[in-house]
Write a structure and sequence with these properties.
The protein has helices spanning 42-50, 72-78, 95-107, 111-124, 140-153, 170-185, 197-201, 221-226, 228-233; strands at residues 2-13, 16-27, 31-35, 57-62, 65-66, 80-82, 158-162, 189-193, 206-211, 214-219. The chain has 239 residues and is an alpha/beta fold. The chain is globular.
Length: 239
């Protein structure tokens, strides 16, 4: 069964069509990677799935329910969690407090009900030693981990990751990928936008390519990366 399905979804800003008749679905438990050049519409697509933007046309289903016109809060409570490309923590709150905010509002639970879950997430994401530090004091890797931890604190069935490996060193990227791989093994469905291709391909089972808002390929990552069209459009290689 598909946990999320988009059918002919389109979005324009003025005369610019940034998402153009996009159709795809993601089976429950799968990890899908999304690649494409800058300006291809990847982050806009995430904002449409999460409800931060409303589609101009088409439908979005989550767990079989039409959520096309539902708010971002409704979708979060239903089980759509996300990280942002640029970490956006509450800088004056501690790392643990950031998770409590995500857990209480994202799950619609009391603080006492989410305490244990938030503590466990801190351990899983390597932040337990930073629990009582202000979020503003974290390094880039730690902020990326906090983005992931806050998304997990909402209790997602579907986890959207937006360039979470960007800006990290090779060693930092490896550590983060291992964490994401462990989360995926637990059965959480993942859609991951990423320019660090070796990190992405080491986790996902399928790869989707966007160009000017249109899906130009979806399927096995090796087959997608070997295709003539992807090499010419995404990699800039004339074939």
């Amino acid at each position: 069964m598909s946990i999320v399905a988009l059918n002919s979804v389109s979005k324009s800003f003025g005369a610019l069509k940034v998402t153009d008749d996009v159709t795809f679905d993601v089976p429950s438990g799968q990890a899908l990677g999304i690649i494409g050049p800058n300006g291809a519409g990847k982050s806009t697509l995430f904002n449409l799935i999460t409800g931060n933007l409303r589609a101009d046309a088409g439908t979005i289903l989550f767990n079989g329910e039409d959520v096309t016109d539902k708010s971002a809060m409704y979708r979060c409570i239903a089980g759509v969690g996300r990280s942002f490309q640029i970490p956006q923590p509450f800088g004056k709150l501690t790392v643990f407090e950031n998770l409590l905010v995500a857990g209480t509002f994202g799950r619609q639970r009391s603080e006492s009900e989410v305490l244990a879950a938030c503590a466990l997430i801190l351990e899983r994401t390597g932040l337990i030693e930073k629990a009582n530090k202000p979020a503003a004091s974290l390094s880039l890797l730690e902020r990326k981990r906090l983005e992931l931890a806050r998304a997990l604190a909402t209790g997602p069935k579907l986890l959207l990751l937006d360039e979470i490996a960007g800006g990290l060193t090779e060693g930092e990227c490896h550590l983060l990928v291992e964490t994401i791989r462990a989360i995926h093994r637990e059965g959480i469905t993942i859609i991951w936008i990423e320019h660090v291709l070796h990190a992405l391909i080491s986790v996902v089972e399928r790869l989707l390519v966007l160009d000017f808002g249109r899906v130009i390929g979806i399927g096995d990552p090796d087959a997608i990366m070997a295709s003539k069209e992807v090499k010419e459009i995404y990699l800039g290689i004339e074939v």
